[in-house]
Amino acid sequence: MEKPTIKLYHIRTFGEKISDTFDFVRENWRPLLKYLTYLMLPISLVETFISNNFLSDYMEFVQKIGQSVQNKADTGEMLSWIGSMALMGIVQMLVTMLLEAIVYTMMQQYEQRQQRLQGITAEELRPGVLRMFGRQFILLLAGIVVLALFVLIAVPFLLISPAFAFPFIVLLLVGAPLFVLVSPIYLFERETGIVKAYTKSIRLGWNTWAGIVGVGLVLYIITSIISSILTTPYYIMTLVKELLTTQGTAAGFVSSFGYSAIQYVLGAVSSYCGNILMSLLYIGLAYQYGHASEKIDGVTVDQDIENFETLNDER
Predict the structure, then answer these.
(1) Taking a C-beta distance cutoff of 8 angstroms, is the pair 250, 241 a contact?
(2) Residue 292: exposed, middle, or buried by beta-carbon count in 10 A (0-12, 13-18, 19+)?
(3) Three-state SS for 219?
(4) How far does CA 204 lie from the centroid of its chain?
(5) What is the pTM of this model?
(6) CA 285 to chain CA mean position, Å
(7) Residue 172 to residues 147, 148, 176, 178: CA-CA distances in angstroms?
(8) What does the pLDDT look like over 254-285, one tens digit per residue?
(9) Are 279 and 31 in contact (CB under 8 A)?
(10) Within 13 Å, how many C-alpha atoms sit on residue 197's CB side?
């Protein structure tokens, strides 16, 4: 017997949000893995290369500080480290944008297609992925503006007294969940503008704050634990190599091409798996969005009324 489709817009308990997330992955793991691999594997290779440079620059920077070398050398190492860190941030931002675009497109196709995601092709996914990826840049610019406004408001108070840091940190921690649903709202709802997406996210987030925090925290902890286990061998090899190199005792296999190749492969695998695992979080937040939209706005009720009115007009 075929299982019923997992509807996006549906009121759910906390447990149902988590179980529907894993049920969706369990039912569609083959197409999810296939198309996420197409996008994430090349990026993971680049991400690992940047990560290796970042750790290497950082260890060299720390070593130079410890040896109290000339300030010019320290500045050069610091700039190199900051550059690697900036590149890592850009790549991670690109990963987030692509993950949300492909995952949310597949969730839309899952409900719209009679066969769900069975036999879905890249040609069917491409228009939705490109549309959502394009809207991600608008989200990015809007996010930068919102962050800049927060900084402009906070800095004058912090200059008056560092004691204002505590209320701003509390405000940030409490207020951040209100903006979590901006992305699924803006990506799933084609007719919604960016300003309306923010106002709607605040409204839905205010009424479902605990659910957003709960779903996000549980799925983040699960993905972080698994990801940490997978990345441990890579970080052990990297730290051993960097520590021996900075101390001038690296020799033999540690400094060989074989060691570097194994380190790179482990890094690429851990980066790839970590990126794939993050899709769990985005799926869970999508179902949280669907729950909030149905609970607060009654989305499916409005759609049923519109369909009924359209049917009457046709008659």
Answers:
(1) yes
(2) buried
(3) helix
(4) 20
(5) 0.88
(6) 11
(7) 11, 13, 6, 10
(8) 777 888 889 899 999 999 999 999 999 999 99
(9) no
(10) 23
